[in-house]
Amino acid sequence: MLTYIKESVDELRNSVTLPSRADSSNLMVVVAVFSIIFALATWGVDTVFSKLVKLYFNNILN
After folding, report:
1. Cα separations (Å) of 48 from 52, 55, 58, 62?
2. Total domain count for the chain?
3. pLDDT tens for the 62 residues of the chain, in order
4. End-to-end Cα, the chain, rounded Å
5. Is 0.90 topped by the overall pTM?
6. Residue 32 three-state SS
7. DSSP summary character for residue 47
8. Residue ranges making up the domain that contains 40
9. Is 15 helix (H, G, I), strand (E, B) or coil?
């Protein structure tokens, strides 16, 4: 286990490179846009299903 931790720390120090600030900003915008689109799509599907369920039960109960 100790060897694994030492090798992991060594890999982090020598092999991992972080993206530049500009790349990070661009990726953040992409993630934000897709998150908003996905949230709107989920809201839309939820709204449609909610109306369908209400319509179904209103027709059955009346």
Report:
1. 6, 11, 15, 21
2. 1
3. 999 999 999 999 999 898 999 999 999 999 999 999 999 999 999 999 999 999 999 988 76
4. 67
5. no
6. helix
7. H
8. 23-62
9. coil
In a domain, 3, yes or no: no
Question: Per the domain annotation, does 15 fall within a domain?
Answer: no
CA–CA separation, 23 and 61 (whole Å): 57
Contact 19, 27 (CB under 8 A): yes
Note whether residue 16 is domain-resident.
no
Q: Assign 58 to helix, strand or coil.
A: helix
In the structure encoding, which two tokens stand for residue 57, read together? Answer: 């039960």
Tokens, residue 38: 């996905």
Rounded to 5°, angle at Cα 42 from 33 and 51: 145
Residue 40's SS3 state is: helix
Residues, the chain, total?
62
The answer to whether residue 9 is domain-embedded is no
